[in-house]
Amino acid sequence: MEILAVSAELFPLVKTGGLADVAASLPKALMAFNIRVRTLVPGYPEVLDALADRTVVRSYDDLFGAAATLLSGTACGLELLVLDAPDFFARRGNPYMDQECRNYDDNWKRFAAFSRVACDIALGAVVHWKPDIVHAHDWHSALSLVYLKYSNAAHVPRVMTIHNLAFQGQFPARHFAELSLPEEAFSVDCLEYYGDLGYLKAGLMTAHLITVVSPTYAREIMSPAGGMGLEGVLNARHDDVVGIVNGIDMDVWDPSRDPYLDHCYSFATFQYRAQNRAKLLKSFGLPFTRRPVFASVNRLTWQKGMDILADVVDEIARRGGLLIVHGQGDAVIEDQFRDAARRYPQHIGVKIGYEERVAHLLHGGADAMLVPSRFEPCGLTQLYALRYGCVPIVSRTGGLSETVIDANDAALHARAATGIQFTPIDSDGLRQALRRAFALFRNHRAFDQLRRQAMKADCSWQRSAQQYAELYDRLLRHQPARTTQRTREAAALRLPHSRRRSILANP
């Protein structure tokens, strides 16, 4: 089976959130199911610098007013198609915002061009290759499904994945005339969204199937509280919405051979983790302590609940604990943590920005990872924490509630607990969770059992990748024109040996 994935981010080249990690790790996991993924990404400088074995696939003299070239090559162990359009993507820094954190005025055009090229690929722009399915990720690529619907490739199955419904790609309606779409596309059944253009909304309306990055989040976004204005669209399509929890790249996040850790460790050699803890404290200029070391690697935003965490730093310091925060985001929240570090220099460490090395050291050295999100589609930080035996303390929402088993009495007795959940999602809720964590930490035996149980959790893509494989198969079975011998062979290879002969002999 051949899949065209369309993503605006790709780890480790361009990353602002979990989208980049998923775009890089899911294709690798799907290889085990005989599914080949080629990923279309924008030609940011970092992507072009890493692209190997490049060949020119197609040239554009006028792609929404810009010259562009479609390249094929490899990077990070992935097969890539790269849209090299300097006028749109030769911008250092954030893919969507300038250095003053203002959205680029031409985002509507940049990602419309990107999506248009995805449609061209489905139409045959790549010689001797056409995808069986086009899989778009988030609003940046959502128009690819719209262009497909109104093209000669309308029969190609279309999948839309929501990574975060808060980001929708909404633009003034005046730009519609420049999108080269038929007038009927600007309607309530497609692009029109409260009088404007809604890129994500249009993707949801034109996809054959919609995936959401956790079953709980899939339910939450059906409500006015979580639907961000799109709950009506999602409820109308509820039969086509599937929640699939994200996995993580078990090679990138592996404490037994992590290049960012001076002291690697495994479940069997967990004692070496203490050396990472000591190095972590030293690197942040904090004193050695036998009290718990909390960490948070997050965007410093309202959604991530980081203002809630800033409100409870006194609780951590008063009890003798330490807190290390690494991330960037809202200037007000950044200043809150800087102020906390000035007030409690022996208890609070802060590093504004994002470095992969620091993130790995925090997961490999801290005792607990704080994820107080107000809403969280899936979350990856808590999965990394589980993998590294860093006890996750999470709000009870979205994928956080599905991937962390709360350390209540029954779960602790059954040796099933892997972390701490809290609700309500406010300062009082988090403060109570911290008190539970301090109490558990004092019981060294119980806390050691908790983090060892966390390390046993299955954070891989295996189960979720199988769900995607089954979803793709289902889509192709419902597309009679595409159900070829090649499709049956691909499906058969994902079945036990005893059933392969049957499916191949009886098409």
Automatic annotation (TrEMBL):
<dbReference type="GO" id="GO:0009011">
    <property type="term" value="F:alpha-1,4-glucan glucosyltransferase (ADP-glucose donor) activity"/>
</dbReference>
<feature type="binding site">
    <location>
        <position position="15"/>
    </location>
    <ligand>
        <name>ADP-alpha-D-glucose</name>
    </ligand>
</feature>
<dbReference type="InterPro" id="IPR011835">
    <property type="entry name" value="GS/SS"/>
</dbReference>
<keyword id="KW-0808">Transferase</keyword>
<feature type="domain" description="Starch synthase catalytic">
    <location>
        <begin position="3"/>
        <end position="235"/>
    </location>
</feature>
<feature type="domain" description="Glycosyl transferase family 1">
    <location>
        <begin position="289"/>
        <end position="424"/>
    </location>
</feature>
<dbReference type="Pfam" id="PF08323">
    <property type="entry name" value="Glyco_transf_5"/>
</dbReference>
<dbReference type="Pfam" id="PF00534">
    <property type="entry name" value="Glycos_transf_1"/>
</dbReference>
<protein>
    <recommendedName>
        <fullName>Glycogen synthase</fullName>
        <ecNumber>2.4.1.21</ecNumber>
    </recommendedName>
</protein>
<keyword id="KW-0328">Glycosyltransferase</keyword>
<dbReference type="InterPro" id="IPR001296">
    <property type="entry name" value="Glyco_trans_1"/>
</dbReference>
<dbReference type="InterPro" id="IPR013534">
    <property type="entry name" value="Starch_synth_cat_dom"/>
</dbReference>
<comment type="pathway">
    <text>Glycan biosynthesis; glycogen biosynthesis.</text>
</comment>
<keyword id="KW-0320">Glycogen biosynthesis</keyword>
<comment type="similarity">
    <text>Belongs to the glycosyltransferase 1 family. Bacterial/plant glycogen synthase subfamily.</text>
</comment>
<comment type="function">
    <text>Synthesizes alpha-1,4-glucan chains using ADP-glucose.</text>
</comment>
